[in-house]
Amino acid sequence: MFTGIIEDLGTVESLKLIDQGAVISVHTSLPVSEISIGDSIAVNGACLTVISKGPSRFAMDISAETLRCTGLGELKPSRRVNLERCLTLGKLLGGHLVSGHVDGIGRVVSIKPEGGSKLFSFEVAPAQARYLVEKGSVAIDGISLTIFSVEGRNFSVEIIPHTLRSTTLDFKQPGDTVNIENDMLVKYVEKILATRATAALAS
Fold this sequence. Notes:
- The protein is α+β, with helices and mostly antiparallel strands.
- The protein contains 4 helices and 12 strands.
- Strand 1 and strand 2 form a beta hairpin.
- The longest helix has 19 residues.
């Protein structure tokens, strides 16, 4: 479980395809001495497991399913990535509850400067669009953000200067892809209501 508050902008050192998955190596300013083999770290919003580490770097497996559902397979050496270690007891929940299980890939539609901030517009697949709620939460490349407005498959978010400086969003251009995780609470509510509706019809 994560918060969507990015801790570090890491740099991809390598991405090697192995069988149907891959192994990614990332250079980081996170305290690697405090990271253990087996720990979960979100890379651009995808929860991955640390399999090895060294000075200022660690490596993680990427499964075939994660490659299918995310844009991690497009990463190249020197690309920056958002990193967040998993939520621990006593850690401030500054964003929202993020599982690190990416629902799908979205696309940057437009970027409009508004003072020091930027208004981003994204497009997602219909299956994801139904979970978008105005003033609700969404994780974009692992970043906890508040939805500004929703129109069909498109939604917008306002990115403040601090978030631009601290995440990969400052490098994005229209047409770029991003990993999207919808608010898990919305998905749970949908599942509960669907189950109740099915039970009511059966009774």
